[in-house]
Structures are given as C-alpha cells and as structure tokens.
Amino acid sequence: MTILEAILLTVITASTPLVLAALGELVTERSGVLNLGVEGMMIMGAVCAFAATNLTGSPYIGVLAGVVSGAAFSLLFGFLTLTLVANQVATGLALTILGLGLSGMIGESFVGLSGIKLPPLAIPVLSDIPYLGPLLFRQDLIFYLSIALIAGVNWFLFSTRAGLKLRSVGDNHASAHALGINVLRTRYLAVLFGGACAGLAGAQLSLVYTPQWVENMSAGRGWIALALVVFASWRPWRIVAGGYLFGAVSISQLHAQALGIGVPSQFLSALPYLATVVVLVLISRNRRMTLINTPASLGKPFVPDR
Q: Into how many domains does the chain fold?
C-alpha cells in the first residue's frame, strides 16, 4: 500500500498543472477566444516563480510571481487579438515561441540551483485518515487551489448571470453585443483568467513537481491542456477526469522505465502525447456532440460597431 500511495501521490502532482492550465483555457474558449499560447504562459510562470522564490526565499511569493507573469503574457495576447484583431492562432503560436525563448534567457542564471519546494499544508484531523489523508488532505496550496477553482468555475459558468453572459459571448458575440454586453471586456477578463491559471500551473512545475529550473520544463504540457479542453467538452468537472487520466499516463511511463519493462524508453516517453492524439481522434468521430458543445464564436474576431 505504501508503493501504491507513492504512485498516487506522484499522479496527483503530475496532474495538477494539466488541470489548472486546461481550466484556464476552458474559460478563455468559453468566451470565444482560442489561445494557443498556453505553453508559453506556463513556462513563463515556471521561470518567474522559481526566480522569485530563489531571490526572496518565499515560495508563496514565487506562486504569486508565476500567476502575475502568466496574466501579463495573456494581456499581451489579448491586446494583439482583441484590440488589434490579430489572428488568434498565429498570435498564440508566436507567444509560445516567445515564452520559450524569453524563459530560457531569464532562467539562464538559475540553471543548476537548488529550489525551495512549496510545503504541504496538512488539514487537521482529515490528514490523519488512513490512506486518503496523505493523498487528499496533506497536499500543497496549489493542489487545493486547483480543486477550489474547478468548483468555482463550474458554479460561475452555470449558476451566475455573469457566467451566462460569458457563455453567450462565446456562442454569438454579435447577439451579445446587441443585447448590451461588453464583449471585449468579457473576453479580456476571460483571457486574463486563463493566463493566470497557466502561470499558476507553471509555478507548480518549478515549485512542487520538480523544485528547480530546467529550460523547456513544461515539455508540451500546454498542448496537452489544449487537448484536455476538447476532451472535457468544455465542462469544468470533466477537466479533472481528463487531467488525472493524462497525469496517470505520464507517471506510468516513468514507473515502467524504473521497473525495467522491456519497452524502448523513447516509446514510453511518447505515451502521454500518443494518448492525446488517440483521445482527439476518438472525440472527433462524434461530430454531433463536438458541434453541440463547441462555442460557436470560438476563434472568430469581434469588431464592435462604431
């Protein structure tokens, strides 16, 4: 049971950044904006969180720095795509490339330095429950935030007037504008939230998952998060199932290599991305369900009438 507990703990740690990044992208896409810059925002969150932690000695300041850096990058994306009406796909790809390069430059002086890990927060009484206690109630702050954000976003989208407005903007921005909804403000706030979540996911990578800075340590997780949004059919609670499924696949290949299973290590390392492709192919076969759940204005530019 100790071995199983250790495996489950690593699955939770590996899944949390996927859940956070996918949740932020879900809100962004629900508003009708397609942000392919998640990978760049994650890596910027990782390097800024590690740098701030190393310079101040406080991992909590590092978490804040990661969130702020992701949000700042998302504001740049919002300015280019919402204000200047640049192509969303091209802009997202450009920001990903920019984030990977800029993070390497910022983090050059931090390579090889030992990091400060975000400490776990044990919930009294609950953390003493056998097996479940260490798994669910003796985790770090970012894990608890991920669960709270999932519940909060689900409530916001489907139980509040503001959430209804955001979904209406994503489904038909022209009609929403005609009804007096400020489409650009709504989308800016959604993009800002998505960037903050991506930055928080990056902070988790450099402060919890691997408490150190390694160039390109996001390793394609931003792209997996984009696939998770489609996998979840733009529903917050399904993000949890998808995130932990992909996290389990990522961890399984590490344990398979440790056990010496006779499979090429390159194939095992490719398993998470292979699983992403397989899931997307299976989902695309049900075009009716995909069309029903996809925001109708996703990726379409909006220019208000003057």
A: 1
Instruction: Tokens 């220019």: give the residue.
Output: 303
Distance CA 28, CA 30 (A): 5
Euclidean distance between CA atoms 159 and 186, whole angstroms? 17
What is the CATH classification number for the domain harbouring 281? 1.10.3470.10
Q: What is the pLDDT of residues 196-229, one digit of tens each?
A: 999 999 999 999 998 999 988 998 899 999 989 9
* Nearest partner of 44 among 205, 253, 261, 264, judged by Cα: 205
Domain of 165? 2-119+133-293
Residue 305 is assigned to a structural domain of this protein: no
125 domain residue, yes or no? no
Are residues 232 and 26 in contact, defined by beta-carbon separation less than 8 angstroms?
Answer: yes
Cβ atoms of 89 and 38 closer than 8 Å = no
Q: Is residue 90 part of a domain?
A: yes
